Amino acid sequence: MAANDMVNILMVDDQPAKLLSYEVILKELGENLIKVTSGREALEQLLKNDVAVVLMDVSMPEIDGFELADMIRQHPRFQKTAIIFISAVHLTDVDRIKGYQRGAVDYISVPVVPELLRAKVTVFAELHRKTRQLENLNRELEQRVAERTEELRERADLLELATEAIMVSNTEGILEFWNSGAEALYGWKREEVLGKNAHQILQTRLPVSAAEIQSSLAVEGRWEGNLVQQTRDGRELTVASRQGLKSNATRDVILEINRDITSQLQAEDALRKTERLAAMGRVAGIIAHEINNPLEAITNAFYLLSSHPSLDEEAQHYARMGEQELLRVSHITRQTLSFYRESQKPVAVAVSDLVDDVLELQSRSIQMSGITLRKKYHSRGEIEGFPVELKQVFLNLIGNAVQATPKGGMLQVHVFESQEWRKKRRGVYLSVCDNGSGIKSDDARRLFEPFFSTKSTKGTGLGLWISKGIVQKYDGSICFRSMHFSTGNATCFRVFFPTPLPGDKIQEPAAFSTATK
Amino acid sequence: MEQAKPVILCVDDEENSLFLRKLVLQKSGYEVIVANSGQKALELLETHKIDLLLSDLLMPEMSGAELIKQVKERGHKLPIILVSGVNEFPPEAQAADLLMNKVEGPAKLVENIATVLQRFKGNQEIR
Fold it and tell me: pTM value?
């Protein structure tokens, strides 16, 4: 309501002539004048309009002024409505008027002095106008506060939505805010950390001195860098941290947003290692060529010497020894310098042959640890595939088992053909069992996750993950069981490769492919 | 098995390797003709009756894979084995009946030759 808006003035008198005279007197105030001749009409108007002041004659038939005033006051909306009584000055009237404790009440005695009436009405009209304005302002303010609150709530929701850890602490490092992202990342609940020092709880290791960070915050208002921190369950994380100093009117706070980059760094590291391996592979390829060519010639030479008629028994024996040793060298160069580029087509391979190759590579470790090897091949286990990646799977399983087996332990390797019960397919099974340290049930869930390793720094944590990927490529399966007995543990890994049925060959094998044409 | 010894055409650019491989094969009862290049091998195929072609993969001028291609283009029907010092065979090499690493040893080489010959003979008889 604007300041010059008209307000309603309700005039109640049973005599129209008097109403007319009030109207004449009040006209120049420029307000809206409503005339009624009875208390009933007055109540109706009050309910319909927002009335600033009621001007009423005390003496009216039916309902007199006091009765009307009582009725008006009973209604909660009108308890503060201003009322001006017009009455002859009887002492009793004045007393009664004074009896109205609440609300704005005034009186004017007859004969009515126009200036006085105008002045009194004006006071109440202005009062009403100001009150309405205030109320409007208040309403507006409340709405703005509500809008702002909603906005803030949205911002807060946003903070909770972030997967980054977002925290606010005072300049002493004491935490004042900790979002859901921080709870999820570090495993600490809000109520556990608020009021405590964040970096003590997280055992933060800084890349630079604390003083350097502080000066950066003080001078530039911000700092960025990688932190190494610990989660509640003791895992180590690397986070990219961004910190800002925010100066409020009364004090400074430090805002901090941390993003987990642990797996990103690990992936980058793995990539670097892979690149290094690829470079090694290229070098190995060159060396393989340069070594293997003469190696074949020498081997053949010794082979021929070992049965050459011009040599006596002893000389032939030496030649045989030389040949045997050369075959060992050949085997090693084939195993280690043979970084195959993936062959184009799968070939027919026997799982047992590949396992033998892998066992030979591991033979030194097996021997040194005094591990008893029990090998049972119920079948050669012929499948179609790529020997290199299959060997990688077997090397992972057997290598892990060898490392887990204690000195003098037992390693069992079985190859057999059977039907897989779940999908009713025939195929080849390889099972590798050891009586080593076993697998904790906590670790079991994460065993096939990338970068998960129980060998701390020695393992890449990629072995089983890669193996699983390879096995899945063959539409096979990989599973394990770890059993704990009072006498010790037993851990068995089992891989299954389906044998293709005649007719659903994936691709023609490379060898002998032209012979059938 | 016929009375006559199977004839193997042995191709390698390295003289010593070729010579020794020839002796190994002869010792195992094969008749061996040698060629020190792919071109030479193609010429010999025109003039001799050859039962099996045993070639090195990596050779200057004409590689073993290229040799196979030319042999097939000329309509020669005979089994082919490619050997290499590296374990990396290009896709074209897959046209060979068998790929093997040189260093697998003389025994394995002889075994592979026998297998491939037998298989080829079997296929011929079916036709």
Answer: 0.41
Residue B25: phi and psi, rounded to 5, are: -70, -40
Whether A330 sits inside 8 A of B104 (CB atoms) is: yes
- Asked if A514's CB is within 8 angstroms of B97's CB, the reply is yes
B contacts of A289 (beta carbons < 8 Å): 58, 85-86
CA triplet A78, A79, A85: central angle to 5 degrees?
A: 85
How far is the alpha carbon of B55 from chain A, nearest alpha carbon, in Å?
13
Q: Peptide bond preceding A111: is omega within 30 degrees of 0, i.e. cis?
A: yes
Tell me which residues of chain B have a C-beta less than 8 Å from any C-beta of chain A. 14, 16-17, 20-21, 23-24, 27, 58, 79-80, 83, 85-89, 91, 94-99, 101-106, 116, 119-120, 123
Mapping DSSP to helix (H, G, I), strand (E, B) and coil, where does residue B110 land?
A: helix
For the segment A320-349, the average pLDDT, to the nearest whole number, is: 72
Q: Rounded to a whole number, what is the distance in angstroms from the first to the last CA of chain B? A: 17
Closest Cα in chain B, distance from residue A509 (Å): 9
The answer to whether A451 and A263 are in contact (CB under 8 A) is yes
The residue in chain B having the minimum alpha-carbon distance to the alpha carbon of residue A303 is B106
Q: Which of A13-22, A151-160, B9-18 has the highest mean pLDDT?
A: B9-18
3-state secondary structure A177-235: EECHHHHHHHCCCHHHHCCCEHHHHCCCECCCCHHHHHHHHHHHCEEEEEEEEECCCCC
Q: What is the DSSP letter of A174?
A: B
Interface of A with B in 302-331 (CB under 8 A): 303-304, 307, 327, 330-331
Work out the minimum CA distance from A270 to partner chain B, whole angstroms.
24
Tell me if A299 and B96 make a contact (CB, 8 A cut-off).
Answer: no
Please say whether the dihedral angle defined by the alpha carbons of residues A38, A43, A49 and A51, taken in this order, is positive or negative. positive
Residue A297's pLDDT is 93
Give tens-digit pLDDT for A160-206: 888 899 999 998 889 999 999 999 999 999 999 999 998 899 999 99
Please give the average per-residue pLDDT across A395-402, as a whole number: 87
| Helix (H) or strand (E) segment spanning residue A51 | strand A51-57
Residue of chain A minimizing CA distance to B16:
A297
- What pLDDT, on the 0 to 100 scale, is given for residue A512? 32
pLDDT over 90 (residue A506): no
Q: How far is CA B117 from CA B11, B88, B120, in A?
A: 17, 24, 5
pLDDT digits (tens, 9 = 90+) for A51-91: 999 998 888 877 878 888 888 888 888 878 888 888 766 65
C-alpha A111 chain-centroid distance: 82
